[in-house]
């Protein structure tokens, strides 16, 4: 009988439609593929095949990897193969001839992938209660992602504790400098001045709030629905001696009712709002801003045209990373803002900046791998490594994922925006003395 590795590689190449520059090693010790392949895949157990047979898309492959049934020596190399990325992202294996799919499935079954579907890794979230994007359901979804332990996020993000795209003014600069530059860019776009009142929706661990209060002299209300974020952000504010200037709340954005604010920052939060709630989100921000007040909305956007209805098919991101998260086209966000009465004045794409940021996070995670495994367990550490690697490649490729900073203003009743006429004037370049 032929060894497992050649038969398995042949089946996958039939599905992909090209020869793969991958070296495969199976549980029986057999190997196949180019000896000098950029990526090496090891299947430790036949159970990896059962996972892929029962979920013949990205979910089956990721379950095999996260559970440890399958290992990859270089995720960047494997996921960087265009045909692999394209096929993994094709949840329904569209374009594969039924006969080809049947032959591949038969080959996998003959290799011993027989039996019921294996139990998914414990870190996978499957059953969710409540109405999509209700307060209770959003709270559970956000907790799944953010309440995994502040110690883990310290390993991943570094001292800045900023979990959003950095602003790399110099590609040779460090992650901390890029995150500091991003916080400053947000503050400058918002036109912050001493005495102003800033609302930070989705404040995370308080880094932007600290930057704005310390360097721009503003009073800040930061809201989050993650208890662990709230607790650490409150502690950081107290340690900085800024408790009289910054208030951190455990509060849903839909419950904020103490406007007006001179400025609103929403950084990495709008992805949790959802298409159905986008008009309400935009109207809420409009109501919370004083006339002439500015909004800076920093959010990931998708480029490919896909159906707007969530839950098209089970995916790695939805089951493991951002349950109920929705990455919408930029046009949907701008349309909602304009319908709510906000005037969009500027947009900046930071796609390449996020790719650099994600690679820096991957480097941090790999550099502290043993600590990460001790902190959150191997399955969750593998989940994050896969997520960050695939995301970096997604932002490096054109026409897949991007991220935008949209600057909008609530106009005065007489139509004035309150913004200087030229960009270089409203952007500014210096921090206020405090």
TrEMBL record:
Gene3D superfamilies for this protein: Vaccinia Virus protein VP39 (3.40.50.150)
SUPFAM superfamilies per UniProt: S-adenosyl-L-methionine-dependent methyltransferases
Cited Pfam families: CMAS (PF02353)
This protein's UniProt keywords: Lipid metabolism, Methyltransferase, S-adenosyl-L-methionine, Transferase
GO molecular function, one term: methyltransferase activity
Keyword Iron-sulfur appears in the UniProt entry: no
InterPro entries (alphabetical): CFA/CMAS, CMAS, SAM-dependent_MTases_sf
Family (UniProt): Belongs to the CFA/CMAS family.
GO term, biological process aspect, one: methylation
Designated name of the protein: Class I SAM-dependent methyltransferase
Keyword ATP-binding tagged: no
Lineage start: Bacteria, Bacillati, Actinomycetota, Actinomycetes, Mycobacteriales
């Amino acid at each position: 009988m032929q060894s497992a590795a050649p038969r398995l590689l042949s089946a996958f190449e039939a599905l992909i439609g090209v020869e793969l520059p991958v070296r495969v090693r199976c549980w029986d010790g057999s190997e196949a593929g180019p000896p000098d392949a950029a990526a090496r895949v090891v299947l430790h157990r036949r159970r990896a095949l059962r996972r892929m047979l029962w979920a013949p898309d990205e979910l089956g492959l990721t379950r095999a990897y996260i559970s440890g049934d399958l290992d990859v020596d270089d995720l960047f190399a494997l996921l960087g193969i265009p045909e692999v990325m394209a096929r993994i992202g094709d949840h329904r294996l569209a374009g594969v001839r039924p006969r080809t799919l049947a032959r591949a499935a038969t080959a996998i079954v003959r290799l011993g992938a027989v039996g019921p579907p294996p139990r998914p890794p414990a870190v996978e979230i499957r059953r969710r209660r409540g109405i999509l994007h209700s307060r209770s359901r959003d709270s559970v979804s956000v907790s799944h992602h953010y309440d995994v332990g502040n110690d883990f996020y310290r390993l991943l993000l570094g001292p800045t504790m900023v979990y959003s795209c950095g602003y790399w003014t110099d590609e040779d600069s460090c992650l901390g400098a890029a995150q500091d530059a991003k916080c400053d860019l947000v503050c400058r776009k918002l036109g912050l001045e001493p005495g102003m009142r800033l609302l930070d929706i989705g404040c995370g661990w308080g880094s932007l709030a600290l930057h704005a209060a310390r360097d721009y002299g503003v009073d800040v209300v930061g809201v989050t629905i993650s208890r662990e974020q709230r607790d650490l952000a409150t502690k950081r504010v107290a340690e900085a001696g800024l408790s009289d200037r910054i208030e951190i709340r455990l509060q849903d954005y839909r419950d904020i009712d103490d406007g007006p604010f001179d400025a609103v920052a929403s950084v990495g939060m709008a992805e949790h709002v959802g298409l159905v709630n986008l008009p309400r989100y935009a109207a809420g921000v409009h109501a919370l801003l004083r006339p002439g007040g500015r909004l800076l909305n920093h959010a990931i956007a998708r480029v490919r045209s896909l159906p707007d209805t969530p839950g098209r098919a089970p995916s790695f991101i939805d089951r493991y990373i951002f349950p109920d998260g929705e990455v919408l086209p930029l046009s949907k966000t701008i349309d909602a803002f304009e319908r709510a009465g906000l005037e969009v004045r500027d947009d900046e794409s930071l796609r390449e900046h996020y790719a650099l940021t994600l690679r820096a996070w991957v480097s941090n995670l790999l550099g502290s791998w043993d600590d990460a495994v001790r902190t959150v367990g191997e399955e969750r550490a593998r989940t994050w490594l896969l997520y960050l690697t695939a995301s970096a490649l997604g932002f490096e490729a054109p026409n897949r994922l991007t991220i935008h900073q949209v600057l909008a203003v609530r106009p005065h009743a007489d139509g004035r925006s309150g913004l200087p006429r030229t960009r270089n004037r409203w952007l500014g370049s210096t921090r206020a003395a405090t």
